[in-house]
Description:
By secondary structure, this protein is an alpha/beta fold. It is built from 10 helices and 9 strands. The chain is globular and about 50 Å long. The model is unreliable at 1-20 (pLDDT under 50).
Amino acid sequence: MTTKPPSVPESGVKTPEPETHDPQSAFYDRTYSTQRSYKTRLATVKKLLPSTDRWELAANLLGTGARILDVGCGSGQLLKLVQPRYDELHGVDIADVNIRRARELLGESPKVIKLHVANLDTGALPYPDAYFDAVSLISVLQFVFDIFHALKEVHRVLKPGGCFVMETNNIASFGNRLRILLGRQPRTSYFDGWDGNVLHYFVVRSTRRLLQEEGFGNLKICSAGTLYPVRSLWPSLLAQNIMVQARRTQNKPRDL
Length: 256
């Protein structure tokens, strides 16, 4: 019995087999599995100057509630901080390795903990409308393909009046302005890759307008890092990252 040979186009190059997995998720799985750790002076500086990291600041802004979703939950750092203040903890991440680490970090708990692999670029969040009291999106928006789709999904699953906390880069920080003036590449991420594989860059004014157009109000903009109270006085210039606390309004996001 003879077997049919694989189809070969006229160029003589074998036609590749179709992808059976999500290459984007596989990329981030490899990235986070081999990610190098970067030493930081924050632990030492904290003893001398008022400092906070993004997870601590976001946890303080999220308050309390019944049910929270962390989109791009990573290794579960933020969910661990808010665990005493919420009855149900939900997290999604594009990388399976991150979900495994988050489960290990959160451990056994009498509370409901549900963690899932999900790719926000390929579909909707796996939750019904108006399901969560709070949603966080920490260092995620700069990495997704479609920022409008991502924010619409956050708006959809968040209860009216619910708390939304997000953090992203600030390309207009003083440090980045100086780098550009000196002809150097701005740096907004410490992940491996070309500027950590960042796809989008933000400034405070456009971020504020974006969130308002997508149905969020009562915006409070601040910043993490060393001397964060000072950075938050003039975040458009002094903030290395843009942290926003907002509320879902009754307005529906705009249609594109």
